[in-house]
Specification:
The protein has 25 helices and 16 strands. It is α/β, with parallel strands linked by helices. It has 3 domains: 129 residues, Phosphohistidine domain (Glucose Oxidase, domain 1, 3-Layer(bba) Sandwich); 111 residues, Enzyme I, Chain A, domain 2 (Orthogonal Bundle); 317 residues, Phosphoenolpyruvate-binding domains (TIM Barrel), CATH 3.20.20. The protein has an 8-stranded mixed β-sheet. The longest helix has 24 residues. The protein is globular and about 80 Å long. The chain starts with a strand and ends in an 8-residue tail after the last helix.
Length: 592
């Protein structure tokens, strides 16, 4: 029976496919597809984990004190019974065999199926046994994490088994961790639906960067939608249609075809220089997460990489950080793939919505007890881990010998941090020279993400060669909005007058000092802001490769001589969005 779920539209377009549910867990679960040859190995991991947990529970039961309440022994009996229940074990093995899920994903998927069955039971006692099942599964997951095979990385080139025939697939989840997004990015999913999240949550940003339709904040979607249900994701309106009728399905397929034609038309601009009608040349660069993203940047017509988010090299690794040589190879691969075009590498921006698998007790305390967006993140974290920071700096400096590399420091707010970071760069250079290793000349820039940095920019510019504005965080910190919190996500407003004034001031100050200034946040890839940013004097935009063609089209139609006089009116307005649309005589639209 067809029904609809409503959420927030965060990435435009239409996706149609069968639902693949990603169950949530109290502990992190890696989700990736395994190769056919690894099915038996994953099943064996599951068996070994079950044996280990059975031994743990049996030992606990045997060693119970004589005066222990009898309920404890009975509880352990229930857990052992659930552990040996073939409904759990055989079905989990079936997920591995049929869907090619890794063992952890298979186990969490079966937990979701059984949990729903428990919820539907009329007997109170049986319904409450769901908590016991969750505890048993959690023990199994922890046992697998302790086992000999704890790598969270899938085999290279693995694709999901074609369990749905020719049918496309969409992900439905309570939420999707950044590490999982990294894996799903390489896969075949055509859309996302999550119960939680706002328009600038990490899931939403990645979905837009992947140029695939997504709806977040859909509340109970992951509980209402079943595995293999046909789902239509309308990323334009925020509607999710489950089991649509043939007529509705055909209407959305028509919209998909129209979107494809528009993308094909825009793709013809990829090799056209981005020059305004009055001859202003604009640099359109790409944001990437991994070296493998560089070819797509070139194909889209990017004239360089404006933001290499190096933190993704640190994620999804089961807690093991990449060493200097491994990082060097990744940075070198990106530099060489860009064929002489500049590559800007941001030092690791860990924290907030991008925690590491491995965190110290101090970091975990900050992560869970305090607001992580205001805690130990970005350059603060790097300076607190000097050994790791030196390794990363040496790797980046070594890669600079292979081509034009720029170094970007995230979340700068204090001159003391600036001095420490620049001293660390100098030490890393000296260490390389003493070791006889090559490094090239490298420009150093600052991310402008907090109001403090924007307001003290003239002082910062004395120490840096360029600046790049991270608008996502600048908006968050200016408006005191946790952009990952759906309860306040509606207050996140890139058109807020305070945000626009900080942005205009940053661009003006950098240009006055003769320093390069760019924008690498979401606003750079949103055509609704292109005219305003051009009018403010911005000539360097960095975005996901999929956004470049749409932004270039607006630049080619713009005349900065006509746009620039209107900036003051927009900044004075109580409703800048409406004023900009009226004065620029353009309809502010989001990208296709």
């Amino acid at each position: 029976m067809s029904f609809q779920v409503f959420g927030l539209p965060v990435s435009r377009g239409v996706a149609i496919g069968r639902a693949v549910l990603v169950a949530s867990s109290r502990i992190d679960v890696a989700h990736y597809f395994i190769d056919e040859a690894d099915v038996d190995q994953e099943a064996e991991r599951l068996r070994l984990a079950r044996d280990a947990v059975a031994n743990e529970l049996s030992t606990l039961q045997r060693d119970l004190p004589a005066d222990a309440p009898p309920e404890l022994s009975a509880l352990l009996d229930v857990h052992l019974m659930l552990l040996r229940d073939e409904t759990l074990v055989l079905a989990t093995r079936q997920w591995i065999q049929d869907r090619h899920y890794n063992a952890e994903w298979a186990l969490s998927a079966q937990l979701e199926v059984l949990a729903r069955q428990f919820d539907e039971m009329e007997d109170d006692y049986l319904r409450e046994r769901k908590a016991d099942l969750e505890q048993v599964v959690e023990r199994l997951l922890r046992a697998m994490a302790r086992g000999p095979s704890t790598s969270y990385a899938p085999a290279p080139g693995v694709r999901p088994r074609d369990f749905a025939g020719e049918d496309p697939l969409v992900i439905v989840a309570n939420d999707i961790a950044p590490a999982d997004m990294l894996q799903f990015k390489r896969s075949v999913f055509t859309g996302f639906v999550t119960d939680v999240g706002g328009k600038t949550s990490h899931t939403a940003i990645v979905a837009r960067s992947m140029d695939i339709p997504a709806v977040v904040g859909a509340r109970e979607a992951s509980h209402l939608i079943r595995q293999d249900d046909w789902v239509v994701i309308d990323g334009d309106t925020g509607v999710v249609i489950v089991d649509p009728s043939p007529i509705v399905l055909e209407e959305y397929r028509f919209r998909q075809r129209q979107s494809g034609l528009e993308r094909d038309r825009l793709s013809r601009l990829r090799h056209t220089p981005a020059v305004t009608l009055d001859g202003e040349r604009v640099e359109l660069l790409a944001n990437i997460e991994l070296p493998g993203d560089a070819p797509a940047a070139l194909e889209a017509g990017a004239v360089g990489v404006g933001l290499f988010r190096s933190e993704f090299l640190f994620m999804n690794r089961g807690g093991e950080l990449p060493g200097e040589d491994e990082q060097f190879e990744a940075y070198r691969a990106a530099v060489e793939a860009m064929k002489g075009l500049p590559v800007t590498i941001r030092t690791v921006d860990i924290g907030a919505d991008k925690p590491l698998d491995r965190m110290s007790a101090n970091e975990l305390r900050h992560e869970h007890a305090l607001n992580p967006a205001l805690g130990l993140r970005a350059i603060r974290w790097s300076l607190s881990e000097p050994g790791m920071f030196r390794q990363q700096l040496r790797a980046i400096l070594r890669a600079s010998a292979m081509g034009k590399v720029r170094l970007l420091i995230p979340m700068v707010a204090h001159l003391s941090e600036v001095r420490q970071a620049l001293e660390a760069v100098a030490r890393a250079k000296q260490q390389l020279l003493e070791a006889g290793k090559l490094c090239g000349d490298i420009e150093i820039g600052a991310m402008i993400e907090v109001p403090a940095a924007a307001l003290m920019l003239p002082s910062l510019l004395k120490h840096f060669d360029f600046v790049s504005v991270g608008t996502n965080d600048l908006i968050q910190y200016t408006l005191a909005i946790d952009r990952a919190d759906e309860a306040v996500a509606h207050l996140y407003d890139p058109w807020h007058p305070a945000v626009l004034k900080l942005l205009a001031q940053t661009i003006a100050d950098a240009r006055a000092a003769g320093k390069s200034v760019g924008v690498c946040g979401e606003m750079a890839g949103d055509p609704a802001f292109t005219d305003l940013l051009l009018a403010m004097g911005l000539r360097n935009f960095s975005m996901h490769p999929s956004r470049i063609a749409a932004i270039k089209q607006r630049i080619l139609r713009a005349d900065t001589r006509q746009l620039s006089p209107h900036v003051a009116d927009v900044l004075r307005s109580d409703d800048p969005e409406a004023t900009a649309e009226r004065l620029f005589n353009r309809r502010a639209v989001a990208a296709e």
